[in-house]
Amino acid sequence: MSSTKVIHALYNDDDVLMDAVKQTRKAHHHIEEVFTPFPVHGLDKAMGLAPTRLAICAFIYGCIGISVATWMMWNIMINDWPQDIGGKPSFSYLQNMPAFVPVMFEMTVFFAAHLMVITFYMRSRLWPFKKAENPDVRTTDDHFLMEVAVSGNEEEMVSFFKNTGAVEVKVIEKH
Amino acid sequence: MYTFSQKLKTTAFILIALGLVGIVYGFLSTPKTIEDVEKIVAAAHHEGGHEGGHEAAASHDSHEAVSHEGHDEKASAAHHETESAHETSATAEPVAHEAHDSIKTETTDTTHVAVAPVAEKHEVNVVAKEEKKVDAAKEHEEHIQHVFHQLQNKPWAALYVACIFFLLVTMGALAFYAIQQVAQAGWSPVLFRVMQGITAYLPVGSVIFFVLLILSGTHVNHLFPWMAEGVTDVNSPDYDALIAGKSGYLNFGFWIGRAAVFLIGWNLYRFYSRKNCLAQDEANDDFYYKKNFKLSAMFLVFFIVSESIMAWDWIMSLDPHWFSTLFGWYVFASFFVSGITTISMVTLYLKSKGYLEYVNSSHIHDLSKFMFGISVFWTYLWFSQFMLIWYANIPEEVTYFITRINDYTLPFWGAVGLNFIFPFLTLINTDFKRVAPIVVTAGVVILFGHYIDFFNMIMPATVGDQWYIGVSEIGSVLFFLGLFILVVFTALTKAPLTPKRNPYMEESKHFHY
């Protein structure tokens, strides 16, 4: 396969970037990626990205956490060795439940938080020693970069992006 | 400007009328004498079930024995004997003849075991039982006396719960309003007039509540045990050393004085805050806005102190032998979330009628988040109070929860379901927080749950195990609900629903989340 070409359009203002994204979407160019130095409010909506499902994951992880805590406390305190410790009723889980609630709560939060963060890392492919995918060092400081796949007339596209207020438009060979 | 719809006004009047009928019926059907109570107790047990079926089986048995012999003083030794008598009936061992009748009826009622062989050996035990007979008769009399007081308290307690609930819901809305002012919230100014409308109930509710407090103090009812005659008098048979020790704080003059100061303080803030807000509409600077800011900040300081003392005075002193340090916060969380829920529901109603053009789903979303968050906060305090006392199990504190768990099992645990589990699962979803039917459903559940919460705090201390949610309770709630609707929506017609010159108005109109 021959290599594909992409256009890198650079902006130095998030308002201009938002406008450019909207125009690009209107002109039916495919936006591959947008690199920004900070979160731009509403950018995901303008790009038409699907909403995140991370919160749903967290809820499920929380359910797992409370199940683990319940099973663990039941198994240790009620099932395995039901001792009389200071007169606490260890005849059934329910009878001694108030004493287990702090553990159940913390385990729920622990599972929900940590597993969600790990899910986030995995989904966004982040780990130590990962090679940075930054196409232009300025995008971590004060520039915004939109990467658009080239299709059809290359010249026309370059001039289109120049008109969207880009401070710089480059055509890059991507391998 | 809002116009009070005729339909809603009629509904409010019907609720008030129905409620009044219920309240009056509740008072009229209250037993007037000890004899009435004897009959009621007897009748209730003959029917075989308590209203609501809340009493434990064990006490049911002992009551049954009493009821069969109720009017026959000499035979009431059975009351004392029931537990052993019950066992005996199965094994057919000898028993005193005083107890005999009751066993016979009881066994035929319940176990269908014949008890004919008992007849012969009666005399043997008669002497031994003679002594107990006197005690038992006295005990029975005390028991009936106790039930009599509880039944007499019932319509009063029902009125008291509904009255304090609606009063404090208004206070919850007022506290939320003051916090929004002081926090300079950018989203809520479009809702200020709604909140002011809700707090318009405060003067009305305060007056009715204050009258109720005075009636308690003048011995028209027996809601507050520490107010009873003779409890602080060493020579009285009713002397209570614990209450006498607290009488420096719990005495009628000081108590009613505090209540007056708190109610007046809250009403003054409400009055001037609204006045300044209306004046700000006509002003051409921010003078009144700044004035309201300072006023709200001072009110919040006064409020948190008065709120804590209010919780001790009006709720905790119903159980004068019991105390809890986080009680004030717990009561606060309960009515604060109810107040926010009320704001949300009135807003949704007005919005659905097309009166709040600047309120969008983001405002509803924010209110829902508060409903969700404070519901969890209430649960945190509920559990903290319960768990600390349950864990340490110190007898003088734990009786509070023992009566509630044993006699109020369903309301006690049900409140957790209504106030925590239901709102937690429905309002945790971001999309659901904007859907009106879901928010209204959660709101109704939260408000009902917090009524039950107040019911749980007040009823066990006043009517004990004689509780049920009947005509008195429902009537009282309907009456105050009707009054609340009438006062609140009348107040909403008095001023434009959107303040004009609030510095955060533009931000609030364009608020989106």
TrEMBL record, chain A:
It comes from the Bacteria. Pfam families: ActD. The chain crosses the membrane at residues 54-74, 99-121. The keyword Membrane applies. The keyword Transmembrane applies. InterPro entries: ActD. Keywords: Membrane, Transmembrane, Transmembrane helix. This is DUF3341 domain-containing protein.
Automatic annotation (TrEMBL), chain B:
The keyword Transmembrane applies. It comes from the Bacteria. Keywords: Membrane, Transmembrane, Transmembrane helix. The keyword Transmembrane helix applies. Residues 46-99 are annotated as: Disordered. Residues 46-86 have a biased composition (Basic and acidic residues). The chain crosses the membrane at residues 12-28, 157-179, 200-220, 252-272, 293-315, 327-350, 370-390, 410-428, 435-452, 467-492. Signal peptide: none annotated. PANTHER family: PTHR43044, QUINOL:CYTOCHROME C OXIDOREDUCTASE QUINONE-BINDING SUBUNIT 2. This is Quinol:cytochrome C oxidoreductase.
